[in-house]
Design a protein that fits this description.
Layout lengths: L1 H7 L5 H21 L5 H26 L8 H24 L13 E2 L15 E3 L5 E4 L2 E5 L2 H10 L3 E2 L5 H12 L13 E2 L2 E2 L2 E5 L9 E12 L5 E10 L4 H4 L8 H13 L3 E4 L2
Parallel strand pairs: 1-9
Antiparallel strand pairs: 2-3, 4-10, 4-11, 5-8, 6-7, 8-9, 9-10
């Protein structure tokens, strides 16, 4: 709405105002997704509701332009300035007075579990992962117990897997553009999925693609926030064969079987000293 007013007061050209408004709205929505505050569906709903209010606001302004207006004078300017100042001070005071102390970051509470393999069946933890849009993705098929998360990284690299880096908005956008332009995407490239409303803690890939369909094996792990009685970290994991990008928009559940590969990964990790439990 501010960009519309800037165009009406001739501070901005029509093209500049429209472009700036779209970019601002897009970045606000992107920040909500990147900070894991909302699902994509929530952001799209916000765009829709915001567009409806914008249309109503512009319609009201255009309707008011056609009515008789008194000649402006200095008193009106000072009244407008005073109103904006009072509104700004009131907004700051109200925000400060109602600021919630719950927004402070708190350390996660860890619970002890003597039998990590039975973690999902004996607790309220979800047995499936979700996509960024909140759709069910796949069943959890691994529970890994290691002294520390860094030990899992070393073990996975020892058995031939490559640790995937964290993907920010720029890297994700670059991969989507490269895929659209028929260029190579970054390798390894593992899009995060969510378990218990949290993105994966660690991600790995076998960089050798399937010759038939170009899919790759991806392993994702989440800290369950449970610990074994020895203090070892209990991680929830999934092993998936998927296209690095297309599954995010075309699949809600992977269909490629990974049974044999899952057994092989469990055996390989077991040889490095990692405790692995395969879930049915």
């Amino acid at each position: 709405m501010l960009f519309y007013l800037g165009w009406r007061t001739r501070l901005l050209s029509a093209g500049t105002a429209a472009t700036a408004a779209l970019i601002t709205a897009f970045l606000i929505g992107l920040s909500r997704i990147y900070l894991i505050e909302h699902y994509v569906s929530d952001v799209l709903n916000g765009y829709l509701v915001g567009a409806l209010w914008l249309i109503l606001g512009i319609a009201f302004c255009e309707w008011r332009r056609g009515t008789h207006r008194a000649s402006p004078h200095s008193g009106r300017y000072w009244a407008a300035f005073g109103s904006v100042t009072v509104a700004g001070v009131a907004a700051v005071a109200l925000a400060s007075a109602t600021a919630s102390p719950l927004n402070a970051t708190s350390s996660p509470v860890f619970q002890v579990r003597n039998q990590p393999a039975a973690l999902l069946g004996a607790s309220a933890l979800p047995g499936r992962t979700e996509t960024l849009a909140g759709d069910p993705r796949q069943r959890v098929n691994l529970i890994v117990t290691v002294p520390d998360a860094a030990d899992l990284i070393d073990a996975m690299q020892t058995v031939g897997w490559t640790a995937a880096p964290r993907h920010g908005p720029l890297r994700l956008a670059t991969a989507v553009f490269n895929d659209w332009a028929r260029h190579a995407i970054p390798d390894p490239f593992v899009i995060p999925t969510f378990w218990n409303d949290r993105p994966d803690t660690l991600a790995f890939a076998l960089t050798v693609a399937n010759e038939r369909d170009g899919t790759r094996l991806h392993a994702r792990f989440w800290d369950s926030r449970y610990r074994a009685d020895t203090g070892a970290v209990v991680l929830i994991g999934t092993l998936t064969r998927e296209d690095p990008l297309e599954w995010a928009v075309t699949e809600s559940d992977p269909v490629a079987p990974v049974g044999g590969t899952l057994d092989q990964l469990a055996a390989d990790l077991g040889n490095t000293g990692v405790t692995v439990d395969i879930l049915p």
